[in-house]
Each structure stands twice: as structure tokens, then as C-alpha cells.
Amino acid sequence: MSEIGDKIRQVFRESAVYKNPANNEVFVGRNLPSFVKDYLIATHIDQNGKLRRDALVRFLDEHIPLNPNAIRSRLMQGDVITLLTRFEISTNIAKNKTQFQIPEMGIKMADTEIPQYVVDQNPDDLVDGEKWGIIKLVYIPPQDKERGYIEMSKYKPFRPLERLDLNSFRECRKKFTTDEWIDVLISAMEYTPSAFSGKTQKLEFLARLLPFIEPRLNLIELAPKGTGKSYVFGNLSKFVWLIGGGKVSRAKLFYDKSRKAPGIMLHHDLVALDEIQSITFTDTMEMRSILKNYLEYGKTNVDNYEFMSECGLILLGNIPLSEDGFPMSDNYVEELPEAFKESALLDRFHGFIEGWLLPRITNDMALRDWTLNVEFFSEVLHQLRTATEYATIVNQSIAVPEGADMRHLKAVKRIASAYLKLLFPHVLNKEDMDIAEFYTYCLKPAVHRRDIIRRQCANIDRESSFSKPMPIFELK
């Protein structure tokens, strides 16, 4: 156990968990994200961090079976099955019913139904989109001319930490120095802090958490393969939806005109488009137009439907590097799909993550220590999104340069606010903020990340205002 691990255990107590990669062997064959694994381990572990393996295996066999394809046959035989699982909800307007599907178990939308009384009990949860929850399934045999179907007779959202006390979390943060807190956050992402070469590399890695914690923060990350992009965005939070390549439509992201149902960006904090080079849009021009409006204003119109959300967007892609470990070209836009090779759209992304500064993930980097429970950590990030104190501090701390470009200004403030929440969540007013730390850890990196976007826009429109240097942002 490291010093920081021991301190995390002492300070956060029940919100801490011991990460031992060997414990994950119990999950082999079950594709579960970290926030679910941590919940299960935390409920099956003793005070010394020892896993009650047999009890956990019994729970998994009953509620997350190794052979998911057997679920349908068991239901047909009359079994009533309770599962902890991911599923997708869809409102069928034509048939006036709510349906669900569990692709991993071969349960299709057309074969299911959620009774109205279950929907009425959970009006804010059982809406279109991806969900995690504890569900009870029964099979309703054919009656008269009606087909048989699988019914979700009971539902409980997977939200073990819905009573999270942010003030208690802030008090815990006060017990760590800034350098210690950086290591706490690295370990919360399930990596060993000492495996990183220094603070610069750690902070670049932590930049991936910025869109988790700030509403409608839009970023781009290009990195070599094997730096852990997919893992971070696919495992740390149930509020993030990861799309890994393939075709992406307006209907999937924003609004499905045929079903008259909003897309996945309505009910998530962040959508990550992974393997961006392999992603294609069903209608590039339509998607470009919709994205311009949404990324700028948080709303867009589709067939007279006004879609509004606070969901952020991040593009994740690979980039070839030279022998010295830096991009072979200063024109990073070459690595993006055609839809994003337009300065007007690119300018609407707030910042850029330089993934080539990050190490290739190795087995030695997997955490073997005490850290924050991922479910707890992801809930903290989710709840901090709506905390308004930090934007106020940013507005009070930054002197607006004369004639500053409005998009530059908004982007810098939004990124600085995200950094403030992430690194200094205990600071709730300007008087308590160390202004030197604010400049070093919040304002300076915010300007840098925005400036990369500006330079990439300048590569497209060399004669435009993008060729002008970023304004100098100073402290008040």
C-alpha cells in the first residue's frame, strides 16, 4: 500500500475500495464496466480489503449469469429472473407502449414490454436511452391472438450513491495537497500515479475527465494507440455513452423522426465518438449543420422538434507520431473525418487533448492500492456538473481582454471552470482560491487547449482571424 493509498483509505473510509487486479478474475466472461465492478466488490469485501469471493460468485451467477443466452429459455420455462444489467429503452408510439432490449442476452425490442405501472413508478428513469438497473423479468405466454413477450415487472435504477454528500467530499479534499490530489484522481481512474513520468503527463491524462464534470464541454483528443482512451470513456461512468466506430446518424444522436423520440445525447452527460477515423455519418451535411447549432447553443432543430441538452461531445482518434514522439504533421485535422474539416464546426470545440504526451498503457500501470470507489467517483463528477459556484469564481478571476473573440472567451472560461471543479472542488468562493494555483492549474491550461483548436482552424482558413494569436488572459 502506498502513502497516498493509505491516506485515501483513512480520509474517504467507506467511499474507498482496494483495487487488486486479481479480484477482477471473478468477472471473467462478464463484460462489466468499472463502476459496476467496484460496487460489487465494495459490497463483498471485508475491512481488510479481502474479497468474499464465494459470496460474490453466487451473486454473479444469479444476477449476471455467465451464459446470457440461457435467459430466454429459462423465462420460457417459467423462471422469474432478476438481473443487474445494462438495457436500452424505446418508446413505441405506434403501439402505445414502452419496450426494452438487452442485446448481450439476445433479448430484442420487439419481444418485450414494460407495463405502464412500472413506467409510472419511474417516470424520470424509464425514458429512451441506455440504462443500468436491477430488473425482474417474467415471460407472458401468448393469449388469444396476442404474441408472447418478456415483461419487465419490476425496475430499480442502479444508483447506489444517489444520496451523495458533496460537502463531505469537499471536506475530504481539503486534507490533500494539490500534488496529492492529482494522484488521488489518477488512482480513481484505476492507474498507478507513480507510473506516470511527471506532473505534466498526469495533468494531460486528467484532462480526459474535464467533459465528465463540465456541462456541454466539447473536446478532441488524438493519441497513439494503446493510451487508454476507450477504457476511460467506456468504464468510469454510466453517464457516458461510448460509440466505437461505424455509422452514426442524426436519429441516434439527436432525434429519430420516424419514432418521434430523442437520441442518446438527451440523457447522458457525455457522448464519446471513439475511433473517429472509422466513423461515418449517414448524412454528412445534415450532421454538420446540426452539430454547428448544438455545439454552439446546446440546442438544434430537427423537423420542427427543438432538441436541447447539456451533453458534451468528445472526438477520440489515433494520430501517427514521428520518432521523437510528436505528430508527424502540425495539421491534426487531417486525422478527422471530412465532416469536421471545416473551421466553422471545428471552432465550436472548446479544447484539445494532446494524447501523444501520454504513456502507452502497460500491465504495471494497473492500480494495486486503495482508491476511490468508481461509482462514488463518477457520481461526484456527475453532481459537480451542475454546481454553479465555480463558474462564478472563474468570472470573478479572469480579466476579459479588450476585443476578445467570444468563442475563445467562452471556451477558456468553460475549461477553466472544469479544471477548478476537478482539482479544487473545495473552493467555493474567490477569497478561498489561491490565485497562483488558479492561474497554473486552471487558466493557463485552458488557454493552451483552446489555442490548439485556434491553430487547427487556422490550418483550414489561413487568411481568417484564426491566424491571430490568442488574446492574453490575465487575472483580476
UniProtKB/TrEMBL annotation:
InterPro entries cross-referenced by the UniProt entry: BrxL-like, BrxL_N
Domain BREX system Lon protease-like BrxL N-terminal: 10-139
Domain of life: Bacteria
Record protein name field: TIGR02688 family protein
Organism: Bacteroides clarus
Taxonomic lineage of the native organism: Bacteria, Pseudomonadati, Bacteroidota, Bacteroidia, Bacteroidales
